[in-house]
Inverse folding.
């Protein structure tokens, strides 16, 4: 979650985009280590804004509340770009898939209220400048100034040129790489329920389905879990594809499946998923504790029990390390890591995933120290792996000095990862 300081900075519609971004970075105690976590929080904020915008007045884009939302959108997107500007090419930005997705939503603009369409239009305009490499002109503009000129500044982008970059980043099926004129299907679930559910689930593996369709599909499956267990493609390729093309839907369906008789089968399947960003985000969602209503004990819980967590993570981390070493993304998944930069990117993602689990208390370092050590030794030349390696070495030394092994300890080692 964004800190109050960062949230307030991103709401500033008067300062220039570059000034806001610089102020946000300056507010971090360790920008190099916190940048990725900050970017993920900003991405979550951007997704949440569209869910709340239906109740706001954005018709003229200048009302107090409306401009507040637009400021958050414009400043937030610029920050996602700015944090990784030093890599030069937009192809190296880890949020390239998000930019492509936003551009397409703004261009297609169907199945949206006028309010959501306005937000997406402004978002798509600034993202088109990132994708075209024409960012020099907007650095000095404020969010309010950009919103006024957004339509005239928008660029037409050929998204096909980013397919290779998205593949190298581990996005097997890049989101919405299609013509902006393609019509989004408008289907209500009626008639033969099984046939429609089957068709939507099949479509969700290769193309993004609309928010309306996803909500209807989830509603039907929640009311009939037997229909879910008999329809979903419970294979490595099936789950992986859905998480890449429709990540929110994929995460929800995995959560529903864990409440069915297929729970054990799903947990076993998760061990072999490839260590790509959408997969790691889904696992993070399942593993990280979340707060329960006030007064309940324990105060937090997670979707996966402790004993299941151990049975899942030990093989997942080992399989993930081996798959990256072999430049393949796992059993039944097409080999997409074709160069060192792609391999390094997957190592970074896996290390950041582990750090997230440590930081939130989802796992105890001692229990996974050997899997983490294997990863970090193999890729010690990657900064994120080297940092984890140093943490592991410190813990190993601490326990050696204390006269017992990491596995023997029952105390949680407090690891500062931020």
């Amino acid at each position: 979650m964004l800190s109050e300081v960062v949230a307030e900075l991103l709401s500033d519609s008067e300062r220039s985009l570059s000034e806001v971004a610089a102020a946000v970075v300056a507010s971090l105690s360790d920008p190099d280590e916190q940048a990725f976590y900050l970017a993920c929080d900003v991405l979550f904020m951007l997704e949440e804004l569209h869910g709340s915008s239906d109740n706001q007045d954005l018709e003229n884009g200048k009302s107090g509340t409306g401009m507040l939302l637009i400021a958050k959108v414009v400043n937030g997107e610029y920050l996602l770009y700015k944090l990784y500007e030093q890599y030069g090419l937009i192809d190296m930005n880890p949020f390239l898939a998000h930019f492509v997705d936003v551009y397409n939503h703004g261009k297609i603009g169907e199945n949206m209220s006028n309010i959501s369409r306005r937000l997406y239009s402004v978002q798509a305009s600034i993202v088109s400048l990132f994708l075209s490499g024409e960012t020099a002109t907007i650095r000095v503009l404020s969010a309010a100034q950009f919103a006024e000129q957004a339509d005239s500044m928008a660029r037409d982008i050929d998204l096909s040129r980013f397919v290779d970059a998205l593949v190298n980043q581990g996005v097997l099926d890049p989101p919405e790489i299609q013509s902006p004129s393609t019509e989004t299907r408008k289907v209500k679930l009626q008639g033969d329920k099984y046939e429609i559910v089957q068709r939507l689930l099949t479509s969700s593996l290769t193309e993004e389905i609309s928010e309306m369709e996803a909500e209807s599909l989830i509603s039907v499956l929640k009311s009939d879990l037997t229909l879910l267990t008999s329809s979903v493609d419970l294979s490595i390729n099936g789950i992986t594809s859905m998480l890449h093309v429709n990540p929110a839907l994929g995460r929800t369906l995995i959560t529903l499946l864990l409440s069915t008789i297929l729970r054990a089968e799903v947990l076993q399947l998760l061990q072999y998923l490839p260590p790509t960003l959408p997969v790691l985000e889904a696992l993070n969602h399942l593993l990280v504790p979340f707060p329960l209503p006030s007064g309940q004990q324990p105060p937090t819980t997670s979707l996966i029990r402790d004993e299941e967590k151990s049975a899942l993570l030990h093989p997942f981390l080992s399989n993930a390390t081996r798959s990256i070493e072999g430049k393949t993304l796992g059993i039944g998944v097409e080999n997409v890591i074709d160069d060192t930069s792609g391999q390094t990117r997957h190592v970074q993602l896996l290390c950041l995933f582990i750090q997230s689990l440590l930081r939130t208390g989802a796992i105890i370092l001692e229990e996974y120290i050997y899997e983490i050590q294997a990863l970090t030794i193999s890729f010690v030349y990657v900064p994120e792996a080297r940092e984890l390696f140093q943490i592991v070495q410190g813990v190993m030394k601490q326990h050696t000095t204390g006269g017992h092994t990491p596995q023997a300890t029952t105390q949680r080692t407090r690891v500062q990862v931020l």
Notes: Residues 31-52 form the longest helix (22 residues). The two ends are 14 Å apart (CA to CA).
